[in-house]
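Same chain as my last thread, 375 residues:
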Amino acid sequence: MVIAVNATYWGNNQFQAQNYYAALIIQQIALAQPEHQFIVLVNKGYNYPIEYANNVQFHSIKLSAKTSFPINLFQQISFPAIVKKYNPNLIIQANGFCSLFTQLPQMLVINNNNLPQFAKQFNWLQQWILRFFTPFSLKKASKIITGSFNVFNELPIKYTFTQQRLQYIPGAAYTLDKPMQWEQKEQCKEQYSQGCEYFLLYVHQTTYNDIIQVLKAFSQFKKWHKSNMKLIISGTLPGSESVFIQKLQSYKYRNDVVVLKNTSIYNSCLIASAYAVIVLKDHDGLALNSIESMQVGTPVIIADDADNSGAENAVIYADINNPTTIAEYLQLLYKDEKYRQTYVIRGIEKAATFSWNKSAKAFWEEITKTVNLSY
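reply #2:
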């Protein structure tokens, strides 16, 4: 069987988690299915950070379009013509949109980014394209795969015709990292927080309002505890970074806030050395950072409107619009080691239930069903 993968968004920082999710599942499927061939179509200039088996071939496409409408035209007109020459049995649409003008069966991989109700970070044209094309794309898909628990629950409510074709396949931690030794944590703290303990806040396609609420919570925590605890903000800041940095200068505890700009969503040292990780609602909705944090033994405070991948009681849920509540949880984790260890243990146990190998097996089952039904 020949399987084509539309991976022309891989390398785009705006979709880091979505790209990791698709790339790691394809990697595991290819390893387990050496008799099948995988043609991965990527944008020219894309670097391959993940090693793949020999049955995976990368082919570069020059995607010169930079704005939403030309990119969508490429997806609908150019891509079907390009992929046809490889004579695939199936197309995996890892970018979140189906090609409407092809008769080949398509498996559509989506997350929060691909749904109009979640895509508020996009400009008006991108939102219009999402609203217009999403129903057609979903109807065209032979199978719809999502790693977002929110999408799995909410998509059939908005688009009832997706109920029979939608499958939830969660992701896993980025690596097999385990909790770090004390010496390693101390080295990491020296590198990032001047040797101090710190809370870690992820920002990736989050809103300024949510970040401000966490800063208010940290202020409350600092009032209660005259400690040298830091807050590290890591990821990609929304909008203008310079504006945020400038506004941060008026923050009372600015000297205890460390901003790591444009950092990867995965940094094992930073995650494993944190006293706790704060996860906000983002527009990927894949909860990969939460799983990674739990795996390395770092407690997770997660916004109650964020995707949790069924973490259940392994994480602490907080109302992001109530900074005092967040501060109280930070205080509990700081003062009560037994309370903190409860979430360390629960997190490690819960993270062990996720694996890319398990997700790849589930994905492969859906591939075989889709191909068998189509031929």
